[in-house]
What we know:
The protein is an all-alpha fold. The chain has helices spanning 2-12, 15-24, 29-69, 73-115, 127-144. α3 crosses α5. The radius of gyration is 23 Å and the shape is elongated. The mean pLDDT is 89.
Amino acid sequence: MLNMKFRKIQQRIPNELLCALAESLLDNTVFRIVNTLMDIQHVTEKQIFHQRLQVTYNQTLEIQNMILKHQDTAVQFANTQTLKLKHKIELKEFDKKSIQQLDEKLHDQQRFLEKAGVPGFEVTDNPMQIQVQIRLLDFILRLSRMDLPDC
């Protein structure tokens, strides 16, 4: 089963790239780099997630405070609709900034792996190249979790 997965990956990635990658993995440096970058990514994603939760919580509080402030249901309804529209725009802007932040993190990771000499990595926005890089990272992570014999 594992052999079949490696064959699928190998079919999508040129042999020259796999050979160069294998050479770069002879010591554990690349494994440590990839694991560190993955940890940093997870921290960043958690921070963004918690920031988004805070934004939505603050928006809920804003609506609740407005409802407490105004007793007239017509005013409450109108203000609620206005706030919901405002909140939707704010959340969309927050999400755009989050995506930009994650894109910057992607470029930082690509740059770091390229400078470390890991084959197949360069700074790019090309979706096909990014997919190859993701497959390479997945391959590296799978290998890092395996018990490999010492050569």
